[in-house]
Amino acid sequence: MDQNSGIPVAKWLEDADEKEIADILYQYGEEKRSRKIAKIIKEKQQQTPIQTTKQLADIIALVVPAKKHKHPATRSFQALRIFINQELESLKILLADIHDILNIGGRLVVLSFHSLEDRIVKQFINKNSKAEILPKGLPIMEKDIKKAIFKNLGKFIASKKELECNIRARSAVGRVCQKIS
């Protein structure tokens, strides 16, 4: 993450309206309490500007109950990070260009830590690992038929041993494909 690019979260929260904050928290963090969080953020901003991550985390914790092994603000911070850094857009750009980057036989390995990222990668691999199915007997030249570009080599998750050493790996999903044409 380039901390010198983009807009600081504190500035974005100050400028954004309640609905925009709620939409971002819901869309990128899949946060069920997004409306309540956005409302309390705007209320607290009226009293004092939010300038630190601790302030923001404490405000979110007023609305989101604590869970074992997960801070109440985790989803919200994730949503803000993904939005501010345009992480999903960057992933989509990479995937759109990967065919030109990889040589035949080259492998793409993507490690995702969020279901939104994983969904994008999964859909990309599935879409590009299937040949076009056409009805028999159509007068279509072989060169015009869309062939599979990648072979789906599957997915992997952290082992129990890895999780004992690195609890943050609990949400990681890796997907692998190989360029075949």
Task: Report on this structure.
The chain has 181 residues and is mainly α. The chain has 2 domains: 9-85, Orthogonal Bundle (DNA polymerase, domain 1), CATH 1.10.150.170; 87-179, Rossmann fold, CATH 3.40.50.150. It is 49% helix and 12% strand. It has helices at residues 9-15, 18-29, 34-47, 53-61, 74-85, 87-101, 115-128, 160-165; strands spanning 107-112, 150-157, 173-179. It starts with 8 loop residues before the first helix and ends with a strand. Belongs to the methyltransferase superfamily. RsmH family. It comes from hydrothermal vent metagenome.
Secondary-structure topology with pairs:
Blueprint: H1 9-15, H2 18-29, H3 34-47, H4 53-61, H5 74-85, H6 87-101, E1 107-112, H7 115-128, E2 150-157, H8 160-165, E3 173-179
Antiparallel strand pairs: 1-3, 2-3
Helix pairs in contact: 2-3, 2-5, 6-7
Q: What features would you highlight for this structure?
A:
3 strands; rRNA small subunit methyltransferase H; 181 residues; 49% helix; mainly alpha; SAM-dep_MeTrfase_MraW_recog; DNA polymerase, domain 1; methyltransferase
